[in-house]
Amino acid sequence: MAAEGVVRAGSRTDAASGLPAGAGHPTGPNSPTGTGSPQPTGSPAQSGPTRSAGTGTRTRDLRQLVTYALVGGSGVLLDLGAFLLLYNVAGLHEQLANVLSTSLGITNNFVLNALFTFGRRDRLLLRYLRFYCVGLTGIALTFVLLAVFSRGLGIDPNLVKAGSLPLVLVFQFALNRKWSFA
Fold it and tell me: How far apart are the C-alpha atoms of 52 and 138, rounded to whole Å?
């Protein structure tokens, strides 16, 4: 508990300042709720002194977004590489190649996000199913983009697939954070 705060006579104090945890914070003893009990700030994997709710949350959010983007980058490379091989080399239909390559990227990203981004290793099957459902939104969005831009406008499916990835990544981060790893 020393990393998060020191407990003395039933009250929690901030290890860095020695002040009661949450003093002056919206969730602390001076809060409008009047409960006097500090609320947790951050994930279970977070360590270090207790921070103000706003600063600690923003730091954790930024760290998660950066890690998610790095993990997503590995999934994008795997997804795009598999798509290029399946579509261009194996000769699969663009939509089938998209489903298979995206499924591979989703599975890669789930494992890495569970381990590194969100630090959640409980209820893995349920979380994977949720993560995959969010991934299906990416498949559906890419399906529509391929249909419109590739089939409808004649743009190379490789370019459409590559162009869809950043949009899908941002959308899925929000969904996964709020639902899959909540």
Answer: 35
